[in-house]
Amino acid sequence: MTDAIFNRGTFRTLWHSRVFDTLFFHQPKGEPRKPAIIFVSSGAEPVIVTREELTDRAGRVAHALHTLEVRPAGNHKGKPVVLIAHTQGLESIYAFWACILLNAVPAMLPTLTEKLDPDHYRRNLAEVARNAQARAVLTTDEFAPFLREALPCDVFSSAQIAGAETGQNGADWHAGLRLMARVGGDIGYLGETDNVLYPDPDTVALLQHSSGTTGLQKGVALSHTALLNQLCAYGGALGLREDDVIASWLPLYHDMGLIAGFLLPLVLGVPLVLMSPFDWVAHPALLLRAIHDYRATFCWLPNFAYNHTAQRVRERDSARLDLSSVRAFVNCSEPVRAASHQMFLDRFAPNGIRADQLAVSYAMAENTFAVTQTPIGQAAPIETVDREALQSRLIAEPVPPDHPRALAQVSCGKPIPGSAVKVVDDAGAELPERQIGELMVKSDYMLTGYYHRPDLQPFDADGWYRTGDRGYLANGEAFVVGRSKDLLIIAGKNVYPQDIEALLYELDGIHPGRAVAVGVLDDREGTELLAVLAELDTDDAEAKRALQVAVRQHIARSSEVTVSYVTFVPRGWLIKTSSGKAARAANRDKWLAERENKGS
Amino acid sequence: MPTEADVRAQLRQFILTDLIRDPSFPLRNDEQIITDGLIDSFALAQIGVFAEQAFGVYIPDPDLTVAKMDTLDLMVARIMRDVM
Predict the structure, then answer these.
(1) ipTM score
(2) pLDDT digits (tens, 9 = 90+) for A39-89
(3) What gap in Å lies between CA A586 and CA A217, rounded to an integer?
(4) Domains in chain A and their CATH numbers?
């Protein structure tokens, strides 16, 4: 068996630099031809980028950005923020590493999709740019002129970057290599003047933006130290080895995609097989083919992806694929459901899938990524607890699986090194094991803070982060049972119902306070689906039909999600709280009960 | 061998029941189902599975795209091309 990466001497030495990218940029010396990224797609041949090529390309883009005056000020505090709003592909990856090389702060952001309203997207991006006081946005040629009209910073297109890479302003791409050589020489700054040293490990290395609409979207600022500590702790917990291969379809603007499906492999020297999330969602067999072709050993998936893959990969697309190389599929980012694991296991058992490959992690962007992890090589433990005791007495009482009130709970595992988890009641007092409360996390890889948002304090007085998740601990393992905050998790995307409701109120015919957005768990999809309930003044069928379409269109074009159910109810149907607001949970339960009665 | 009318009727039923989740929704043949947000792009994979199960038509990945499958008309035409 190959040694774990952490036993290597070079790794240990580089570790002491305390700057996370030195690991990435110095490892190629030993293995320049090792694939760093294999980019696969359904419509083209795979593109293999070696570590050497990735370093070259990043250096060339770094040079271009430097030429375009994206430069740090002459101290550690003046790092320019660069928003990367590209289609997910190699170009966005080169841009990310170029920013790191330049000692700029990159933030990966979603791109415009077919369904989104371009004006809405641009407004959101402008808001993010203002909040982050961004220096520049990097985007496609097609999109750059449109963004330039409204953004408070420079917008550089692919062509501008390429132009600056290849010789405009008197430079050519070899300059990038020269810069790289200087970096390689002394981990120093690459520029015409030596006014910036390599970054202070405690300064911000990158931003991760939480999902959500304008106003709630905030940049999670992570330092070099936090990233290094997380990658070390998590890589160690996984027992990551030199012969591992990570396969990922995840978006790089999401913590799971950015950390587990991007930085972890690249920084620790493990090949990454990557694809576009848009390609995967339409062609889920792409991921399985990638695993088969490159003998991938790790793959992170949100819960819905187990259902999507199990149900939407056609037999002939999976028939000859061997998935036995995988050491772990890690379920993360939304509530884990035992039924989803079982569906995946049943569907792909003929392809070599075993229960011991199905692992679970509990993670969040504010903790860089992983908080807990179940042991690799073992099925994530499942226990059955009394549903009634859980809901009414807030206790996870174990019962036999055949108990009439048995509820399966999948363990998220124990905290990884450097993390601690506790459960507290509403008053903040720590609860004993098996009592349900809010999960609190503390680690040595927490966020520095929300970028330029001193008004948002993520920690309590003792440095614990309130996760907003409800759960319990049992034998030191964390179990998540729900949310304290009003938040829906739809196919791995965090959606605030109040944002959806605000969009509904923008429509003629829907009045403020007379609509709710709720999540309903869906067994087939393995995730929550978005349902909208709205009181209307009209009974006119044609008007209702028009509004039904308008609701679906408006939410789809102005948010990251689509609506699965639109239900119009008569005036007075919605249950209100004592303060006059529509009570989401009570209305969801009322609607579900009515649906069930109609169905029976 | 299913006729175009059969394919259209079955596909419409599938989209309304399984994807839009509202059997009474008055879907037009040329309605842009994905770009107008009635369903999301996850549905492309579902349509691929349905076309194979219901009509024995395997739609290759390069044809399962938003541009090529955005309306009921487009889907019906693509399936009819390979109906044996």
Answers:
(1) 0.94
(2) 999 989 999 998 878 877 888 888 888 889 887 765 445 789 999 998 889
(3) 27
(4) 50-199 (3.40.50.12780), 365-483 (2.30.38.10), 488-599 (3.30.300.30)
